[in-house]
Amino acid sequence: MPSGATIFNDKLFEAFANASDNIYIYVCDMKSDISRWSKNTVDFFGLDSEYMEHAGERWMQKIHPDDRSEYFEDIDAVFSGRSVRHSCQYRAKSKYGDYVWLECKGSVIHDENGEPAVFAGLMTRLDGQNKYDSLTHLLVGFEMRDYDFSKGSGAVILFGIDGFRKINNTRGYIYGNKVLSVFAGVLQQLAGADDLVCRLQGDEFLIVSPGAAEADMTALYEKVRERCRNMRFSTDGVKSFSVSAGIVAYPKDGSGYDDLLSNLEHSLEYAKERKTEQAVVFCKKIADRHNRINRLHEALTRSIKNNFRGFELYFQPILDSGTKRIVECEALLRWKTPEIQDATPYEFIKILEDSGEIREVGGWVMEEALRHAAKWQRKYGDISVSFNVSYLQLTDEEFVEKLVEKAEEYQVDPKRVMIELTESCNAEDTEMLSRQFDRLRGLGFKIAMDDFGTEYASFGLLHDVNMDVLKIDQKFVRGLVKQGNKADMAIIESVVDMCGKLAIQTVAEGIETEEIQDVIRGIGVSYLQGYLYSRPVPETEFEKMLCQRGI
Ligand code: C2E
Ligand code: CA
Ligand code: CA
């Protein structure tokens, strides 16, 4: 039988106590009637401390007068030995003065002499009946449903913390929760006296400001942004973070809460995509953009279901910098339907990535790339094929197996297959990435990091994962011959130098002129790619190029 000291200090208690915002736990040494309550209980109900003597009596004061007798009878049965189980529902008063519904359950453990020794259990908040969010103590978004936005005028701002998922994944949920609480505090401090502040799901927070104009919300956003930027001065251990926001004024014709919220979400999404901290006011452009995304998404899903009809691979040659011979090609995805002819790869791939359908389409790209690689290797000898892979595809543990299976089916030599990792910024789990890459490299496949030097791919990743090839982003290459290109030149030179030391080969993308080509070759980049040699072309055109180069 554990002694009082161990039941209170048990790591298990801490683990359970931190497990959920909505569950409060307690354990009581029945002989001394000393108990420990989880910290979230103390915080939310305004108790004196985690450790309490005769906690039952104190707790009774928090319970709604109408529910006290029911609670008393049930708990008395436990402490007087008539029952070993406690179970009842009642309302308890939070430190904010409102009552929340709780379901309270507990049970008794007896010592070796059969005496009641430990009483432990948990209280669950019965959600839906609660007006306030248990973590931040703000109103829950649900409460806004009944707000009448057609009465009077005002403005609403929706905040989102940039990269919150990444914060959670890299620093842990406890830290993530702290960020949310601190942020909620900032909003409450800076919002006006008549404003309603509430928390929607996750990292999104809403402020409804009756009487305000859009410009007032933009000003509020700027104040909030400054506070979050200067978080290093805070004492809560929360480092600075950045926030974006969407703003909508009301009333708008026939718009209820749902329409308002959807417009806010689109504005926030737009703000986040720009990747500069900002607040975006909802306008027609955003509405049109959203409608287009929806239209493209529906058509993409139809194409996928229709056996990938409308998808096609184009190929762009990659030349050896020394011999200027085509040694490789990059497979680039294209998509067109009778109705939609103008979607760029950047546009439709983003939609596929956001919806997760890039997994299916990526699987199709892989197979098509291997099929072409097999054909060309048989016909034209030592030609390598590279294809692009989104981070999401690599989170599939079976990715490597599928690739190996297809490479065997088409009889392609893995040494002549390269996988380019795009948008590696989303690489939250570099350990996983590194494991997948090592497996692939162990099997002979080549790995390239795409767009090196952009925010998507940088030195951090180079440190964490092993790779064969680094593709220098076009923005450095294309700027080379412009005036004041010293920085780009210095960057490329140092990247090439560093790669040389790490036995990593380099590709310069975006070579459009002879002039740039000559500079790039002078620096010692291993491979060349760009419109100077060819744009990405359909397979038959690429085959013509292979024919001309000879074997
Ligand atoms: P990326 O992987 O960086 O591909 C190179 C892009 O640069 C291609 O655009 C190519 O057409 C373009 N490009 C090549 N040389 C030049 C040049 O000299 N000048 C200029 N201005 N552009 C040049 P594209 O085909 O529009 O593809 C855009 C992006 O879409 C790709 O960038 C890649 O991130 C993504 N992507 C394409 N195919 C796939 C795919 O199958 N799967 C995934 N996940 N992403 C893909
Ligand atoms: Ca690429
Ligand atoms: Ca690239």
Secondary structure: elements and pairs:
Layout: H1 4-9, H2 11-17, E1 23-29, E2 34-37, H3 39-45, E3 51-53, H4 55-62, H5 68-79, E4 85-93, E5 99-110, E6 116-125, E7 139-140, E8 154-161, H6 164-171, H7 173-190, E9 196-199, E10 204-210, H8 214-229, E11 243-250, H9 257-274, E12 279-281, H10 284-305, E13 311-320, E14 326-335, H11 345-355, H12 358-380, E15 384-389, H13 391-394, H14 399-410, E16 417-421, H15 430-442, E17 446-452, H16 459-464, E18 469-472, H17 474-478, H18 486-501, E19 505-508, H19 514-523, E20 527-528, H20 539-549
Parallel strand pairs: 7-9, 11-12, 14-15, 15-16, 16-17, 17-18, 18-19, 19-20
Antiparallel strand pairs: 1-2, 1-6, 2-3, 4-5, 5-6, 8-10, 8-11, 9-10, 13-14, 13-20
Helix pairs in contact: 6-7, 7-8, 12-14
Bound molecules: ligand C2E and calcium ion (2 copies).
Number of strands: 20
Q: What name does CATH use for the topology of the largest domain?
A: TIM Barrel
Classify the helix fraction into a percent range: 40-55%
* Tally of structural domains: 3
Strand order of the largest sheet: 13-14-15-16-17-18-19-20
The ligands bound in this entry are: ligand C2E, calcium ion
Structural class determined from secondary elements: alpha/beta
- The average pLDDT score comes to 89
Report the top-level CATH class of the largest domain: Alpha Beta
**Termini gap:** 81 Å
Overall geometry comes to elongated
Which regions contain 5 or more consecutive residues with pLDDT less than 50? none
